[in-house]
Amino acid sequence: MEEHTIVVDGDVIVGNHSEIKYGIHANSAILGERVELAGDLICKSDVRIDIWSRIGGNVKTDKDAYLGEFVTINGKLIVKGDLDIGNDVKINGGFEAKGWIVIRNPVPVIVYLFLYITELLRLGKGEEVEKALNELFEDNVEEMGTAAMIIPNGSSISIDSIRVPNHTVIGNCCRLIGNIRSASLEMGDDNTLYGSIRTIDEISVGKNNSIHGNIVSRGMVRISEGSHVLGEINARTLRIHETARVDGVIRASEGIVFEREEREELSDIQLMHLDV
Asked: Are 223 and 229 in contact (CB under 8 A)?
């Protein structure tokens, strides 16, 4: 997360009714319905923006773009591939498209899948439904890769806070800005967070992380080896590795457990030299 932009090595999926006070640079992007994106959307691969979404800056893609009805782009649209666009789309800065331009109102993908599956179930073809879903999700997993950023429905990301209605998962080697508010949180290794964490349920922090703020939870908090919390920790229970560091006060109403590394000690028999 930079000053005005979120940079992702892989792909981005933004759920419906989410508000992002940044721009996004990614491989590809899929934005749901009524998504508010404050900055530019720049992608190497395809861009898909669903109905009633609003982009505050420019949209640029090296491949194809798909814009649903009533989408608004305050900046310029640059598409090096084909442009599939719905009715009543506003592009205030003009657009460039090197490929085909198709103006139509296609059925949204999720609605099409729902109608298709409903008809198969009505005809009693349950096996074909299962096969189609497996093929669909297998393809998506291979296409999205492991570096994808998925923002759930109704989330909000700004310079001050990252608000997620349910569970939050943070991978490895990320740099994040803002106070995280979610139901629960799981963080990988080697991350830096310039902000605090507040949840209702469990918080798990991996190895060698740096948290520049407080950690507050009604559930259990676990801090793994080498991690550094510059603020306070308030939790129901706390499990913290002996090599972790907390600069502030620790409060745990139901106790604190210090975890140590398991070291294999040689027994007396292993230390003896036996001649046969």
From this structure: yes
Residue position matching structure tokens 């599939």: 84
Residue 46 has pLDDT above 60, yes or no: yes
Q: Which amino acid is at 136?
A: L
Distance CA 112, CA 118 (A): 10
Nearest CA to 32 out of 73, 81, 86, 68 is that of 68
* Contacts of residue 21, Cβ cutoff 8 Å, sequence gap at least 6: 38, 157, 158, 159
Q: What is the reported pLDDT for 275?
A: 39
**Backbone conformation region of residue 136, classed left if phi is above 0, alpha if psi is from -120 to 50, else beta:** alpha
pLDDT tens sequence across 203-248: 999 999 999 999 999 999 999 999 999 999 999 999 999 999 999 9
User: Over 60: is that where the pLDDT of 70 sits?
Assistant: yes
Share of the chain above pLDDT 90, in %: 68
Which residue did the predictor score with more confidence, 101 or 228? 228
> In Å, what is the CA distance from 167 to each residue of 113, 144, 187, 239, 264?
26, 20, 11, 20, 37
